[in-house]
Amino acid sequence: MHREGNASVCALVACAALVATTLLLAFASSDAWAAPIKVACIGASTTSGDGSTAGHHFPDELGIALGGGYQVKNFGVSGTTMLKTGDNPYWKHAELNQAIAYQADIAIFWFGGNDAKPQNWTGHMAEFITDYEAMIAMFQALPSHPKTYLFLSMVIHDVEGIPKMVLEQQVLPEIKQVAAAKGSFVINYHDAFITHPEYFPDGVHPNDPGTTAIGKFVANILTVPSDGGTDVPLDATAGSDGDAAAAPPSKGDDAGASLDAASGKTQPPSSSGASGSMGPASSAGASGSASQANSGSPNGASGSNSTTGAPSNGANGYTPSGGGTGCSALRARPAPQEMAWVGCALLGLLALRRRSQGK
Questions:
Q1: Domain 36-293 is of which CATH architecture?
Q2: Whether this model's pTM surpasses 0.90
């Protein structure tokens, strides 16, 4: 009996070890152990945080809105341009290489306001698309292959040397062309917030309530289901004056069409190429080839994931040709199927215990 008791104890110990190992494997495959989705925010003063207090800059609020499954980093540099020939090119700052080294899953770019200034735009406007495509190509060529999102910038009125008309009629259409050529998503911040001057005391930089609203607005775009069927708040604060769908628009939408903030809805993307009042927005239509765009990049990265026929305008954001929206496909997070084995192991443990007690 003594030997049988020892054998039963050994069996119980072995079974307990099996249960512990199975539980560890189950939790290792669960969300609790999954690496966070990394988001890089790249841009000028509205990204770096001018106008808002420490801890409440746009990237901070985006991280709060996205929650614990995401890691958001701020790589913004105030006053910078996308133009390499601008008065303060982002290309020359260490934050660019830091953003590259971060190996993000999502890269959000917010440029255009400083580029619209006369000293930058006049005489260099033809370089804007080429330079923007070059930066997008650099990130898309990274091992992490991030999804790329491009802000449509906004100013309430002419401010800080930024001509509102130049920004809206010249810079923003070219940002849409870049998105079309590089298979990027557009964040239509302009249409969503142009009617909310209370968020922009100086006409361009969001205050703390503004960054909170913008963070929630962008988080809704990043996490919208791939079928585009979920409505998300346009003004993501209490007392919203209406909802707008984050669904991808038809690729044939007018590039100059604005969103009805109270009830605007967009349709899922079609297979047709982008077109609109600003002309076709295909990779062939955007100036600057992929090989030209990659010249002069800091790390020498080359190659791009260029697509044709990406849509021209989105209510909140849109999909490029045929791709799913949001981040749901970035990482497959399987359910812990091993939990079934845990149940079997526990039943075995109980059976062994009853057997040892019976003897």
A1: 3-Layer(aba) Sandwich (3.40)
A2: no
Distance CA 94, CA 174 (A): 26
pLDDT digits (tens, 9 = 90+) for 156-204: 999 999 999 999 999 999 999 999 999 999 999 999 999 999 999 999 9
- Per-domain boundaries in the chain: 2-29+336-358, 36-293
Our measurement of the distance from residue 47's CA atom to the centroid of its chain's CA atoms, rounded to an integer in Å, reads 14
d(CA 258, CA 67) in angstroms, rounded, equals 30
Q: What is the pLDDT of residues 288-337, one digit of tens each?
A: 333 333 333 443 333 333 333 333 333 344 444 333 334 444 444 444 44
Nearest partner of 150 among 195, 101, 115, judged by Cα: 115
Q: Which long-range contacts (CB under 8 A, 24 or more apart) does 143-146 make?
A: 143/103, 144/38, 144/103, 144/104, 144/105, 145/305, 146/40, 146/104, 146/105, 146/106, 146/107
Question: Which of 44, 45, 42 shows the shortest CA–CA distance to 97?
Answer: 42
Of the candidates 85, 83, 80, which has an alpha carbon nearest to the alpha carbon of residue 95?
80
Using CA atoms, how far residue 61 sits from 18, 80, 260, 290, in Å, is: 44, 22, 25, 34
Strand partners, 74: 41
Residue-wise pLDDT tens digits, 205-224: 999 999 999 999 999 999 97
Closest by CA to 281, choosing from 65, 133, 154, 131, is 133
Neighbours of 317 (CB within 10 A): 27
Residue identified by tokens 């791939």 is 226
